[in-house]
Amino acid sequence: MSNANEQMAARYKNNFLKEIEEQAEMGEWVKMCMQCGVCSGSCPTNFHPGWDHPPQEIFMMIRAGKREEVLTSNSMWMCTSCYNCYVRCPRKLPITHIMHGIAEYAYRLGLAPKMQPTLHLSQTFWNNCTKTGRVNEVKLTQSLYFKDGFMAGIKKGLEMKDVALGLVKAKRLNIFEALGGGHKCKDIKGIQAMLAKAKELEAKRKAAKAVA
Amino acid sequence: MARKEYAFYPGCSSQKGASASNYLTSVESMCKTLDIKITEIPDWNCCGASISYAESGELPRHVMNARNFALAESNLPGQDIVATCAACWLGARESKERLEHNSALMADTQEALKEAGLSIKAIPEIKHMVEVLIEDLGYDELKKPVKKPLDGMKFAGYVGCQTNRPFGIHGESFENPVYLDKLIETVGGEAVPYDQKVTCCGGALAFSEPDKAQAQIKDIIESAYDNGAEMLVTPCPLCQANTEVYQGQINKKYGTKFNMPVLYYSQLMVLAYGGTAKEAGLDGNVIRARKLEAFAAK
Amino acid sequence: MAEKKHAAYICSGCGLGERLDIAALEAVAKKEGKMQVVKTHPFLCSAEGVAMIRADIDDEGVTHAALCACSRRAKTEAFNFPTTAISRGNLREGVIWVRPDTEEARETTQEMAEDYVRMACAEVKAMTQPAGNPNTGTNKTLLVVGGGMSGMTSALEASKAGYKVVLVEKTGALGGWAAKLYKRTPTREPFKAPEDNGVADLVAQIEADANIKVYLNSTIAKTAGAPGRFKVDIAMESGPTVTEDIGAIVQATGFNLYDANRLPHLGYGKTPHVVDQAGLEALAKAANGGVIKRADGKEVKSVVFVQCAGQRDPSGEHLPYCSGYCCNTSIKQAMYFKDANPDVDTVVLFTDLRTPGNGEDFYRSAQNKGVIFSKGVVSEVVPNGDACTVRFHDLILDDKDARIEADLVVLATGVVPNSGVNIDAVAAPAAEAAGSEEGAEAPAPVVEEKPISILNLTYRQGPDIPQFKWGFTDSHFICFPYETRRTAIYTAGPVRRPMDIAQAQEDATGAAMKAIQAMENAGLGKAAHPRAGDLSFPTARLEGCTQCKRCTVECPFGAIDEDEKRFPLFNESRCRRCGTCMGACPVRVISFENYSVNTVGAQIKAVNIPDEFSEKPRILILACENDAYPALDMAAMNRNEYSAFVRAIPVRCLGSVNTIWITDALNSGYDGVMLMGCKHGEEYQCHFVKGSELGRYRLSKVGDTLKNMNLETERVFDLEVAITDIDTLPRKINDYAAKIQEIGMSPFKGF
Ligand code: SF4
Ligand code: SF4
Ligand code: SF4
Ligand code: SF4
Ligand code: SF4
Ligand code: SF4
Asked: Would the CB atoms of A91 and C364 count as touching at under 8 Å?
């Protein structure tokens, strides 16, 4: 267990609901769920096997104090941001954002599943886009393929070869981007200073919450 | 002067050589016909997209959008921002909403912006290109320049998620939005009814959870075929890419024989307005829309 | 009465003139109908047309008039001649609106119209215009039984409307259950916090009200008489019995909590740390806003609420129904804890949280205050040292062995109505055998062992209001919720169905208003709902009576007692004019002046029956005037066409249908008989509650008659009709007509 995690676990003892309320983005909404199940019934990923806990269950587990199980769960990472649940929830819970918020919190505590593909995508995407201010799709794709190591990356790359070739032919994938050319913002320095500041402020805010 | 002017936010995927570059091509041509002037926000940056939530945290995500707001506000004063990508539009609108409703978040944002020498006075309105078309212009105006109606062609309007939820197009229902069908009909095509109109294509999880995303995509294409559609039409670059480029893999996995072109609404409009295949960006489709190419050549 | 003079008025307006041969109709009225006066008018309901009839009544001595125009349900205000017997021949809704305007249909349409003229003439000749019930009582004092929130509200509302009230309460104080509450669920915006229980305010209003006389520690020893002239004996615990003259009664006798001792698996009785909702109110009252302590004085740090304890139970062991208020009550009680100390853990275990009305806001407010709601079924509450362990099946996480520890457990046990003696169970325990869905396996665990009568009515049919399901008093739950099966006696509040205070107060107001209306009608000799204002009433030719008692038993409203000689004794002001007694009487001695075996029988006989080879069958429809006949009229308004072979006669209720009408019809050559009445049984819609059921039971015996006559059983067809069956009804009529044609013509024609 990471340090941050131990600290939080100790602080909220057996009140996991309160922890989520205070620490996770939009977590204060969890208590307002009325267990109707509309979100679970609306979630596209729930229709295909592989998602352990749809939102309703996650919220219920939070109330039941199942901290470990929730924070290490794969489920939040399966959310496709389709906002189906969000618009249908009779209690108007911003479910999509709560799911993201809990995921982010789990990641912050170091509890998110290792090598979680969507988490990896999230990291990669953000790093990719903040580096130059804009997304470099080739590099993004590359780093996604190679997350499981070099050989796996080649294999995946081969599997996706047709997809990529199609895009290249349609001039929608510019392989030269990989060579350092490609799109970028002019004021990269400004952007990075701005983001550094934002990170700092956010960290401060979270730290304040963590000790409050 | 053009009849409407907007600060344009193309978003990463619509850049030259990027996955939705043909979207941009067709939008530019469409706007020319409709006498809409779109001016790219100088030095715009990536919106952060919803998928970055875990790494970015809350504030940095909003700050990314805020920078674009500030640039638009100072360089293109008085103009609404228009985005063509559904995800950019949604992310920007969400940031606008949160910043406007949370003064602490706004204060922090301003502080971060200062580092880039920027600040926000009032966040401009943020519109999706579809809103510009149907709200600022209206279907009647869109119909006027039609020279070659797409008679006899059957399209499945695939609305998907992000232009539809959580904000949606004003006056549309989440469960059965009809604006895309109306756009198809405006240019003379036939919009077939089918039941997967607002099903999620998997979004960014097409990368990280390809099996699940492809299962969803399969449902969408299958239903479009079953209901007699020849092509899919979408307002979103991610939907377009997901439903188009994975058809080959889905065929392999499920033994299907999908080969359905997926177009942007703007491509249809350009063709109906008499534009060439090139102006409509038809060369950018991985699954070539042969029928439309022939139509354009006529 | 002076000499009779019969007249027929035929209207040629509304397209009748174009569609029908009016001259032929006149001839029928004159020759076959034997009308002394026959007139046609192009617009009968116009001022001029009405004046024409008026003049004939005033100047020509017309006493009976057959108006052959539109349905009897149309133009009732124009055709209002209080001293004249009026029948209506339904040529518009009954004929031209349901027939196609084509050449080939012309002949059968005309035949239909001529038959309706014949029927109207025959009916009016058999009628007398009723003069009203002479046996009226004009007492206008309202008796309210029960001094809880419902009773107090009824009393105050009646007083505000200017009526005197006698309020009888069996305990020593007004307030009922509400007085035991620390606070009540909110009744006002923003519905977020518990409110004062409101009892003191109502009690003060009652004490200050000169119109209201209160008897505390008192019960009803005897209720005799009838609406407008009840004599009620009030027995006071210490002191004499007083007799009050009463016009109408509101019974607001409320409920008792379901006995939690029947729930030992939930720990009640095993540990003092399990209480019911009343127990918790007592603790909260003692705390009076401070931290809530258990009986042993220990401060409660964690509390679990168990919803539906002994309720909504499909096993038949406990209450099968939902009491409706207890979810909101638990929310309120959880707030007692949170408001006093936000750190108390409060968990509500529910299967469905039912918070009607603004309860949703209240529920959200509790969630905001940190009350935790979990969906789960509690299997057991076990004492655990100084606390309790609640074991439950978590329905969302499907954890069958979920547990919570709590200092205190509160059981939401629900209500049992306080409705007195179940007279049906007493009268005929065997009659209960008829299956019912939900409560079937549970032969009413609800009924107390020895219920004590509340009203002590001297009615032949028993001392209390008839009950419906699970001991709640019967009331026409769909349309007329306060109506019981005893005229001018209304029930209000939880004795009628489970409800909360706000609903009970609304209920009490409605019941008081209905009671006032009933007193007023009784004073004028008029019927109450649903034939409000009707002046007719049943009388029996006792010379012919065989004392079979069918009428006294079957009357759904307990209107008929027995005299010393054991003959039926009608109490007109208790009677609702349904005619069930008339339908029941085997020797046909019961009749109303304007509705009798004859008025209907004459119409049946008046219809012209074509011979066997004509291929024109005749089908008699006897249609309930409350639902089926209006449905026919509305079908006609929508121009939903149906067969030209049917002849429809409205009846007051299926219960009033005497089998003689059916045998007569079949004997005289009708090919089929359709009976149209309201739904009966558990979800009855009959306006007379039991009428359609009794009628159907009686008519189910017709099968034997058919066999004796060697006729197919399909020749009599019982159809359940709701007022909304506007589109389906014509179709069903046509299907039946087709079936009759398939079976073939009746062999009884021309006898
Ligand atoms: S739809 Fe909303 S209220 Fe219903 S279970 Fe999901 S989160 Fe809870
Ligand atoms: S937004 Fe996420 S959690 Fe909600 S329905 Fe879509 S995939 Fe499921
Ligand atoms: S409403 Fe009746 S009475 Fe009046 S004109 Fe029409 S059919 Fe005749
Ligand atoms: S109101 Fe709630 S607790 Fe009471 S019986 Fe109904 S569902 Fe159960
Ligand atoms: S059966 Fe009907 S009509 Fe007869 S006495 Fe009873 S209420 Fe009156
Ligand atoms: S049903 Fe007829 S015969 Fe029987 S008791 Fe009543 S009046 Fe007499």
From this structure: yes
Inter-chain contact A60–C374, Cβ cutoff 8 Å?
Answer: yes
Domain finish residue from C129, C151, C178: C129
Closest CA to C633 of A192, C17, B49, C642: C642
Do A109 and A34 share a domain, yes or no? yes
Looking at the structure, tell me whether residues C248 and C266 fall in a common domain: no
Number of domains in chain A: 2
Question: A164-170: long-range contacts (C-beta < 8 A, 24 or more apart)?
Answer: A166/B245, A166/B248, A166/B286, A167/B19, A167/B245, A167/B286, A169/B286, A170/B22, A170/B283, A170/B284, A170/B285, A170/B286
Distance CA C549, CA C444 (A): 29
Say whether B236 sits in a helix, a strand or coil: coil
Instruction: Check A122 against B55: CB less than 8 A apart.
Output: yes
Nearest CB partner across the interface for C397, out of A31, A64, A91: A64
C306 and C400 belong to one structural domain: yes
Taking CB atoms and an 8 Å cut-off, how many pairs form between chains A and C? 34
Q: What is each CA distance from B52 to A196, B56, B84, C735, in whole angstroms?
A: 16, 6, 20, 67
Enter the tokens of residue C685: 């819609």
C372/C467 same-domain check: no
Cβ count near B45 (within 10 Å): 30
pLDDT of the residue at C245: 97
Place of tokens 């981007």: A177
What residues of chain B score a pLDDT lower than 70? none
ipTM of the complex: 0.89
Q: Is residue A163 situated within a structural domain?
A: yes
Location of structure tokens 């998907």: B160
C566 has pLDDT over 70: yes
Q: How far apart are CA C534 and CA C532, in angstroms?
A: 6
Can you give the residue range of the structural domain that contains C544? Answer: 539-570
Q: C618 Cβ partners below 8 Å, 6+ apart?
A: C607, C609, C610, C645, C647, C669, C670, C671
Ligand nearest to the CA of C529: 5
Residue C410 and residue C273 in contact, taking contact as beta carbons nearer than 8 Å:
no
- pLDDT tens digit sequence for C402-446: 999 999 999 999 999 999 999 887 655 434 434 334 434 444 444
C17 lies in the same domain as C39: yes
* Residue owning the nearest CA to atom 6 of ligand 3: C14
E-strand stretches of C285-344: 302-306
Give the CATH number for residue C196: 3.50.50.60
pLDDT tens figures, A15-61: 899 999 999 999 999 999 999 999 999 998 776 666 789 999 999 99
pLDDT for residue C433:
39
Do C407 and C441 belong to one domain? no
- Could you say which of C363, C370, C396 has the minimum Cβ distance to residue A57? C396
Give burial (CB, 10 Å; 0-12/13-18/19+) of C566.
exposed
Q: State the Cα–Cα distance between residues A155 and A175, nearest whole angstrom.
A: 18
Report how many Cβ contacts below 8 Å link chain A to chain B: 224
Q: What gap in Å lies between CA B83 and CA B93, rounded to an integer?
A: 10
Q: Whose CA is nearest to atom 4 of ligand 6?
A: C548
B44 at A interface, C-beta within 8 A: yes
| A88 close to B (CB below 8 A) | yes
B194 and B217 Cβ atoms separated by less than 8 Å: no
Q: Kindly report, residue by residue over C318-348, the tens digit of the pLDDT.
A: 999 999 999 999 999 999 999 999 999 999 9
Nearest partner of B25 among B293, B285, B298, judged by Cα: B285
* Orientation angle between helical segments A188-211 and A3-12, nearest 10 degrees: 40
Q: Which of C645, C669, C662 is nearest to C749 (CA)?
A: C669
Whole-number Å distance between alpha carbons of C111 and C610 = 10
Pair C243, C252: CB distance under 8 Å: no
* Tokens linked to A86: 């969000």
